[in-house]
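Please complete every field before forwarding. Incomplete forms are returned to the sender.

SECTION A: IDENTIFIERS
Entry label: holo-328
Bound molecule: NAP
Molecule representation: SMILES string

SECTION B: INPUTS
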Amino acid sequence: MRAVILPHTGGPEALVLAEVPDPSPAAGEVIVDVHATALNFADLLQRRGTYGTPAALPGILGIECSGLVASLGDGVEGWAVGDEVCALVSGGAYAERVAVPATQLLRRPLNVDLTIAAALPEAACTVWSNLIDISGLAADDVLLVHGGGGGIGTFAIQTGRSIGSRVFATAGSAEKLQRCVELGSERAISYRHEDFVAVVKDETGGYGADVILDNMGAAYLGRNIDALAPDGRIAMIGLQSGRDAEIPLGRMMAKRSSLFTTSLRDRPLAAKARIVEGVRRDLWPRIEGGDILPVVDRIFPFAGMAAAHRYMEDGKHVGKIVVSIRES
Ligand SMILES: NC(=O)c1ccc[n+]([C@@H]2O[C@H](COP(=O)([O-])OP(=O)(O)OC[C@H]3O[C@@H](n4cnc5c(N)ncnc54)[C@H](OP(=O)(O)O)[C@@H]3O)[C@@H](O)[C@H]2O)c1
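SECTION C: PREDICTED COMPLEX
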């Protein structure tokens, strides 16, 4: 099969289209004929060699895809050859075929094209596990989503709105601020020109945010705590502004606040299976009902993987960047 491999870490040019052996399914896995894959921030970090868990080299990146079930490993039940699916994987999705634990498959939502469905698994699983499972986001909660224009952010805003929360989102450009509002953010906050703590406090009558989905890490920690309401929760999913920070425990305790740090990719299979099950139960009906829809900025051809990475690094995209594998 063809795959985009990473022979060594580096810039986008390090990604090379090559012939590699087909995967074979272990017990409990299926082989998916990949229709499309989607880019994630983690892919950029892995390519550069700066992700927490380094990629095995030479390796195949890609942590989500859509496609057709091509074959079943021993012990797989409930799936059949030809099923249209999207899937969460731990690597290997920049390829024509990938082995996927059956517990990480989701049926293509009826209203979402198979190529576009590649944009769903990572965002849906990240948002479900952080907002619904860990933070217990509820109707009428105040939710602050940082990076509201990104792949995770666009999904998180819609999920918060769908649950009935009051959603606020930060973004860095006029276009992204506008899109955040269109997706359900009551007020979008320019992190370049406004103080998000002041805006959230002001808009909520001094109350603050019950839940903050944070992609920034160190530099935002203190201000996130300031922006929290009593009993507020911070779900920290990214460290884009830095890894190391002092935790102001006194300010946290004064509000009885909680700080969760999470990563999806390195969780054990059973934990991922539980998350995928939660997504299937709680989010898939909202997608099929049209309440939450994948936001896809652009679709690149398979041979354009390096260009897709460059485009993501440029940071102007709104939502997800998809790479079509089958149509090229
Ligand atoms: N822990 C997990 O399990 C998990 C899973 C998936 C993703 N993530 C993390 O989630 C984050 C988003 O990933 P993605 O794939 O959605 O990438 P993405 O589409 O490239 O989104 C990155 C976002 O960062 C925003 N950003 C940059 N500087 C900012 C600032 N100063 N304040 C607020 N936002 C800022 C960008 O917004 P502007 O363009 O408006 O600047 C953009 O929306 C990444 O940090 C990624 O590592 C974590």
